[in-house]
Amino acid sequence: MTFKRNFFSVLYLPLTVLFIILTVGTVGYILLEKANFLDSLYMTVITLTTVGFREVIELDTKGKIFTIFLILMGVGLIGYTISSFSAFFVEGGLTEFMKGRKMEKAIKKLKNHIIICGFGENGSKIAELLKKSKRNVVVVDSKYINEMDNYYHIVGDATDDNILEAAGIREASVLVAALPSDADNIFVSITAKALNKKIKVIAKAKEESSVKKMKLVGIDEVVYLFDISARRIANLIISPHFVNMVDIFSEGDVYLEIAEIDISKNSHIIGKSISEINLKRRTGLLIVAIKKPDGKVYFNPDSDYIFEKHDVLLVMGTREQIEKSDEIFN
């Protein structure tokens, strides 16, 4: 649930009880003693709170019996209501509520952020790596975990439309479905696509049979965990130094990433060579490969390669270097 819903779910019952007691008492005095609304409400309040103020209604026998009933039934319920409010404030409920309201307002201001549904072993690691890459991340999980305080977060069921809305689904660029159940990952992915047609969805699959189903429903990228594990083990045998180097890049103090940069048709670098734009000196970025519109890829392109419109560059560097390169390319 969101923080707002949590606040009202905690206090809904005691508030309802208080309203019912006040209503019964007020209506009772109006019907039995023919008193006006304000006097009846006042009489109900002083009876329930046992403050001992002067009665404003002269009670007959029926009124006295009703008052006895109201005291016996109401005082205990009022005590329950007061204790519920006290527990909420003493246990930090109000502080948590205000903190949650602040969090929701901050999330509403985000644009092109990444939503991670599920903060288990996979989701928490994904969030950690994305934070190193200085991406805005909103994590969603049904249970509150202390580590979630390191990120924008929503506590609630990720398959609920309202929870995704609270996480800023309409302004997000990517959603990662990392819930424990493949069925839930499929459901949350479909919901995300319905709420934001442009969002890219990446889903985790535990079962091989789920991979095909996920692709059929339109999930952009499916990550089958056992396949990834098998590939890593094989690569540790085939190219151990390369794997270790990648780990250093992704987990070291300086986080390096490989990013795609699309060359727009109006880019001023079209018709220029790699050596002419001198990307390495100006930004520190390394051009790993260039992908052509027809799918052909040129790895480690020569310095005399001439850029063409709709080229896609694969570059490696820090997030700051990648952001700095945008003014050069487009």
From TrEMBL:
GO terms for molecular function: monoatomic cation transmembrane transporter activity. Keywords: Ion channel, Ion transport, Membrane, Transmembrane, Transmembrane helix, Transport. Gene3D superfamilies: 1.10.287.70, NAD(P)-binding Rossmann-like Domain (3.40.50.720), Regulator of K+ conductance, C-terminal domain (3.30.70.1450). It is found in: Cell membrane. The keyword Zinc does not apply. The chain crosses the membrane at residues 7-31, 65-90. Pfam families: Ion_trans_2, TrkA_C, TrkA_N. GO terms for cellular component: plasma membrane. Residues 246-330 form the RCK C-terminal domain. It is a multi-pass membrane protein. GO terms for biological process: potassium ion transport. The keyword Transmembrane applies. PROSITE patterns: RCK_C, RCK_N. InterPro entries: K_chnl_dom, NAD(P)-bd_dom_sf, RCK_C, RCK_C_sf, RCK_N, Trk_Ktr_HKT_K-transport. Residues 111-223 form the RCK N-terminal domain. Its main location: membrane. This is Voltage-gated potassium channel. It comes from Thermotomaculum hydrothermale.
